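Title: [Solved] Zinc/iron-chelating domain-containing protein 3D structure

Original question kept below for reference.
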Amino acid sequence: MSLAHADPETFACQECGACCAYSAEWPRFSIEDDADIARIPEIYVDDPAGRMRCEGERCSALEGRVGERVACKVYAVRPEVCRTCEPGDPECLIARRHHGLPV
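Solution (posted by the thread starter after getting help):
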């Protein structure tokens, strides 16, 4: 894939997913309380690490192919770190570069 420049306003999260497949450290719980975490199905929670369960760098709740079409299996109850990531923000651009997607 090319590292051509793209307009962040055109980034479509459901066509990207790079932020959810960048690092096992990113989907860490920060301000969630126990009730928030309890709403996430246990299969996707890594309790000892205080984060979402990952398969390598990829969040286990992410389905689909990064850069083509993705979806979050727990979108309605996803952690705050996932809610605050915005298309074109610094974290988004880091993850897109990591996957060779245009930034």
